[in-house]
């Protein structure tokens, strides 16, 4: 069967023939995902290691760690060309290098590697510490905050926004624009009009920056990209725009999401907060566990590149796959007591940075540093805090998952209200 001709009906028939569960697993429109996205994904492990979803355009779902890792490490067998597998009307968004396959993918990853290298991340750490210190002092003075808006989204912006050639004075506007697609899907934007407009607005932001940097280079990411070559030729404006779009996403929303989930958990863990202040060396392992337990990108897409049999199931070229990384990270065969956040857990075999293999998140070191610095600097200033009223808490679900807000109150008094 040639690429693109596989149908949902054919895939469903193969699933039923193989005795694989067939369900309506719908991250795009099922309201349970907005209530508890990570919990809903974890619960999918009970459906099966492999199952078929009739939602949207139809797709296979994989929940087991071993198979998720195997697929993510096999770009020759599984393409990364589609991001929105579970969308009914996926936006025509191509991101480089995220949607590239080898060998083109490796060329672009090598090109951006210096921007996110250990040395580059170390240079950004003092800025991150200053940002967290100032923000924590503001929260301490006020006595409360919306952790998502006031802390989690601000820190990555203050660390990396100017590196992208964007003014920090426009941080709120830029964050809202870049994260808007996470709020849009078939339930609230059925024809994709709003989503296309949001993507276009982000593109327009960078078109202005790239045009300016061609005239007057600066010490920032767009200028660096404009100076680079691939296969002996300069990058085109289109390639630079795609990379800027991807890098901005890497530096903003995903890290903020894990920050919020981690602090929601920490708010109910006074013993762990004491460990952080008494033995700061625990923070590195805690961040690893946060990325495992609260991955901002809990699901990734792949497309089958050639017919194959996997665990007794026939997959055809063009079949869509959804890998449930959050579920894989809770596989008890790999992670004993997976619901427990254990800073001493070794080795860190989680798939929390987008899976293993060549498509592992390019910004993983940056994200890990920002999370570590946040935990360290925050708890030097605010060791006691609890959750506020969570009755209005909901989540945005697209490729990443995000809380809309997280009320946090300084001090130990009161019992947090839960849904």
Feature tags:
419 residues; Cytochrome p450; six-stranded mixed sheet; three-stranded antiparallel sheet; 17 helices; 15 strands; 44% helix; disordered C terminus
Describe this structure in words.
This protein has 419 residues and is an alpha+beta fold. It has a single domain (8-410), classed as Cytochrome p450 (Orthogonal Bundle), CATH 1.10.630.10. It contains 17 helices and 15 strands. The protein has helices at 8-17, 31-35, 37-43, 65-72, 104-112, 118-142, 147-152, 154-160, 171-179, 193-215, 221-226, 237-251, 253-266, 270-278, 283-293, 325-328, 364-381; strands spanning 22-23, 50-53, 59-62, 78-79, 144-146, 229-230, 233-234, 299-304, 308-310, 313-315, 320-324, 385-387, 395-397, 401-403, 407-410. The strands form five sheets. A six-stranded mixed beta sheet has the order 1-2-3-11-8-4. A hairpin with a 2-residue loop joins strand 6 (229-230) and strand 7. The chain is globular. The model is unreliable at 414-419 (pLDDT under 50).
Summary?
By secondary structure, this protein is an alpha+beta fold. Helices cover 44% and strands 12% of the residues.
């Amino acid at each position: 069967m040639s690429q693109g001709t596989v149908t949902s009906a054919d895939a469903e028939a193969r699933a039923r023939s193989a005795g694989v569960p067939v369900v309506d697993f719908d991250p795009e429109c099922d309201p349970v995902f907005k209530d508890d996205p990570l919990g809903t994904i974890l619960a999918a492990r009970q459906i099966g290691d492999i199952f078929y979803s009739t939602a949207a355009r139809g797709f296979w779902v994989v929940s087991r760690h071993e198979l998720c890792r195997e697929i993510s490490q096999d770009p020759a067998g599984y393409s990364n060309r589609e991001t929105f597998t579970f969308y009914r009307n996926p936006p025509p968004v191509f991101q480089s290098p995220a949607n590239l396959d080898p060998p083109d993918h490796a060329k672009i990853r090598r090109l951006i590697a210096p921007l996110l290298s250990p040395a580059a991340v170390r240079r950004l750490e003092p800025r991150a510490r200053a940002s967290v210190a100032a923000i924590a002092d503001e929260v301490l003075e006020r006595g409360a905050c919306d952790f998502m808006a006031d802390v989690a989204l601000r820190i990555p912006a203050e660390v990396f926004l100017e590196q992208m050639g964007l003014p920090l004075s426009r941080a709120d506007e830029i964050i809202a624009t870049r994260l808007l697609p996470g709020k849009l899907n078939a339930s609230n934007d059925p024809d994709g009009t709003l989503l296309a407009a949001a993507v276009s607005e982000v593109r327009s932001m960078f078109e202005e920056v790239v045009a300016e940097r061609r005239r007057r280079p600066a010490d920032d990411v767009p200028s660096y990209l404009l100076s680079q070559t691939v296969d002996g030729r300069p990058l085109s404006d289109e390639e630079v725009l795609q990379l800027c779009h991807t890098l901005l996403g890497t530096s903003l929303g995903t890290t903020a999401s894990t920050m919020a989930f981690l602090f929601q958990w920490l708010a109910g863990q006074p013993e762990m907060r004491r460990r952080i202040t008494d033995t700061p060396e625990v923070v590195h392992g805690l961040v690893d566990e946060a990325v495992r337990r609260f991955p901002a990108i809990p699901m990734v897409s792949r497309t089958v590149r050639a017919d194959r049999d996997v665990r007794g199931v026939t997959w055809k070229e063009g079949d869509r796959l959804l890998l449930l990384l959050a579920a894989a990270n809770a596989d008890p065969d790999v992670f004993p007591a997976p619901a427990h956040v254990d800073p001493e857990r070794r080795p860190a075999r989680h798939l929390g940075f987008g899976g293993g293999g060549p498509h592992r998140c390019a910004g993983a070191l940056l994200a890990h540093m920002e999370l570590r610095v946040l935990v360290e600097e925050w708890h030097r200033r605010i060791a006691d805090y609890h959750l506020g009223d969570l009755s209005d808490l909901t989540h945005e679900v697209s490729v990443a998952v995000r809380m809309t807000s997280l009320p946090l109150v300084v001090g130990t008094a009161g019992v947090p209200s839960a849904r």
